[in-house]
Specification:
Number of helices of chain B: 14
Largest interface: A-B, 25 and 19 residues
Mean pLDDT of chain B: 89
Number of helices of chain A: 5
Number of domains of chain B: 3
Structural class of chain B: alpha/beta
Largest sheet of chain A: 5 strands, antiparallel
Distance between the termini of chain B: 42 Å
Helix content of chain B: 25-40%
Strand order of the largest sheet of chain B: 6-5-8-9
Order of helices and strands of chain B: EHEEHEEHEHEHHHEEHEHEHHHHH
Shape of chain B: globular
Shape of chain A: globular
Strand content of chain B: 5-15%
Radius of gyration of chain B: 23 Å
CATH class of the largest domain in chain B: Alpha Beta
Number of strands of chain B: 11
Distance between the termini of chain A: 23 Å
Oligomer: heterodimer
Radius of gyration of chain A: 15 Å
Strand order of the largest sheet of chain A: 1-2-3-5-4
Order of helices and strands of chain A: EHHEEHHHEE
Low-confidence stretches of chain B: 195-201
Chain lengths: 146, 421
């Protein structure tokens, strides 16, 4: 089965260029024959996870894998990791600081939003070994929505 | 958009500015991929040889054998510092137009209808936030082409130009058509978008012909008349039947400025964004889920708004200063009553029957979608070329060139920098 994987670099604390990796993913998916609604869901998840890396993580990569059945978005960074994943998944829980909030981030909706917009999400964050978030989006059959 | 081969110097300045990458250089001359053009006019703006022109017509044949009606964008008023809008319209009459229609009147109607839709949407949640202004046709086309997932965000209220055209057809021209006279509608525009075909009712047998003129097409003639009117002691009086045939307010030109649409609107959480690059950047962000706390965004792909349109006669900053002086003198204020508009709203007068899928078929990306194998081949081509976006091959950038190669529309050896491996 043909498969495609593309990776994009994310730089920690670079708020000016934050979002570029997700935009690259969006543009790639738009050149292929995907439902705009599916692309929108991937875009939202990509941006949320990219912002998490920019705000909390170390440098990282955002990669997209495409095959005939699914899209897999994977975000890996070498930051401090997530202390309590279960807590972080709760809407409204945030470890953002005042600077983040001043820029309009830190509402504690990042991970819940990613969960809502993906079909499957898996988070690995062993202490001090960075974080890996993997999200799967199944490609709906032509003419069907999901 | 028309590309004049003989004038093109082959510099390629138009290649990278095209937001839909619709221009290629063939045999050192720029050519356009017609089905990818959204009519934004960025190429007109950057061409030093004036080899690109809007597909608008010239006003030579005015009024000889037909009733000529000018449908006037308020941007025209901003081209004449110190002149009242009504005198600009008078100038058009002296040029030979039998009727002049002030579009700002319909912009005001649109403004009331928009406020009402937003007020109701707060409760009904019919459309997603942020709503996107449909006033700039290039923005709507750009969304259909590049951001189809945002089509539901486009405000579903009839555009001012459609309201204007409907009124003129319904009430102004019927008596001429009944008498069998020929009527031509001349749209006087600051940009080459002409009118958005998706917004106008289908042409019927009795429908008048339509012509789009650029402001710069009529300016040389019009300024003479406007100067005369300014210098005259007594100005000729023209009878008008409808309120919108003249423009009694001085601030109408405000609509041409970025932010002019929302300045007087009764919506707190709104934004005005102008410029092609900025518009694309914001649309990307909206697609990623940002700005859902904003209710309405006014986008104009021309910097500074319609005053920055490619077919204007005077510089956008001079025009802006004219507008600001007018607004200072006359304030914001509206001339229509909300109650009347609300009654029309209740009757469904502002609803668009515009189906997003129709927009997609008119302006959506029409290239064949790439497969996984195609993208792998594109990556391979990209590895073989230097990747500096030099445009010497005739494509706007390396990625587009690689795509053209894989699609069979360009040859690899057209690249001057193939890396030998």
């Amino acid at each position: 089965m043909p498969r495609l994987k593309k990776s994009f670099h994310i730089k920690a604390r670079d708020f000016i260029r934050a979002g570029e990796a997700s935009i690259n993913v969006q543009n790639l998916l738009k050149s292929m024959d995907f439902d705009p609604r599916l692309i929108r869901r991937v875009a939202i998840c990509g941006y949320e996870s990219e912002m998490n890396v920019v705000m909390h993580g170390g440098d990282g990569t955002l990669s997209i894998e495409v095959d005939e059945q699914k899209l897999v978005l994977e975000i890996i960074d070498d930051g401090p990791g997530i202390e309590d994943i279960e807590l972080a998944m709760q809407a409204g829980y945030s470890t953002a600081n005042d600077d983040h909030r001043e820029m309009g981030f830190g509402a504690g909706m990042g991970l819940p939003n990613m969960k809502k917009n993906s079909d499957h999400i898996q988070i690995e964050s062993p202490k001090n070994q960075g974080t890996a978030v993997r999200m799967v989006f199944f490609i709906p059959e032509k003419g069907k929505t999901n | 958009m028309h590309f004049e081969k003989d004038l093109c110097a082959g510099r390629g300045t138009c290649l990278p500015v095209c937001p839909t990458k619709a221009i290629r250089m063939k045999n050192k001359k720029a050519v356009r991929i017609v089905e990818q053009c959204i009519g934004c006019g960025e190429c007109i703006r950057v061409c030093r040889e004036s080899a690109v022109s809007a597909a608008t017509e010239k006003p030579e044949m005015l009024g000889e054998d037909h009733i000529a009606i000018a449908l006037v964008s308020p941007v025209l008023y901003a081209q004449f510092p110190g002149v009242m809008p009504k005198d600009v319209l008078l100038g058009l009459r002296q040029m030979g137009f039998q009727h002049t229609i002030d579009m700002s009147y319909f912009l005001e109607i649109f403004q009331y209808a928009t406020e009402e839709f937003i007020r109701r949407n707060r409760k009904s949640g019919q459309a997603p936030w942020p709503l996107i202004s449909p006033v700039c046709p290039v923005v709507v086309r750009l969304i259909a082409f590049k951001f189809p997932s945002l089509l539901p965000n486009v405000l579903p209220v009839l555009r001012p130009v459609a309201l204007m055209a409907r009124e003129v057809r319904r009430n102004l021209i019927t008596e001429y058509l009944d008498k069998g006279q020929e009527v031509i509608l001349y749209y006087i525009n600051p940009c080459p978008t002409k009118k958005d075909p998706s917004c106008l009712p289908p042409r019927s047998r009795s429908a008048p012909a339509e012509v789009a003129l650029g402001i710069n097409d009529i300016y040389p003639q019009l300024i003479k008349h406007v100067e005369e009117i300014k210098a005259a002691d007594a100005i000729p009086f023209y009878q008008t039947r409808f309120e919108y045939e003249t423009c009694a307010t001085g601030n109408a030109s405000m609509w041409g400025m970025s932010g002019g649409e929302i300045a007087d609107m009764d919506i707190d959480r709104s934004l005005a964004v102008s410029g092609m690059e900025e518009t694309i950047h914001y649309l990307e962000k909206i697609e990623m889920g940002l700005f859902q706390d904003i209710e309405y965004i006014e986008f104009r792909t021309c910097r500074e708004g319609c005053l920055g349109g490619a077919l204007n006669a005077i510089d956008k900053y001079l025009a802006k200063s004219t507008v600001q002086k007018m607004v200072k003198q006359f304030g914001l204020g509206r001339r229509l009553h909300r109650d009347n508009i609300l009654r029309m709203y209740e009757k469904g007068e502002f609803q668009t029957d515009k189906d997003p899928s129709k927009l997609t078929s008119l302006f959506g990306a029409r290239k064949k979608a790439l497969t996984i194998e195609n993208i792998q081949k594109i990556e391979k081509v990209l590895q073989m070329i230097k990747g500096t976006d030099c445009t010497a091959c005739g494509a706007p950038d390396c990625r587009t060139f690689a795509e053209d190669v894989v699609r069979g529309e360009a040859k690899l050896n057209e690249c001057l920098y193939i890396v030998d491996t």
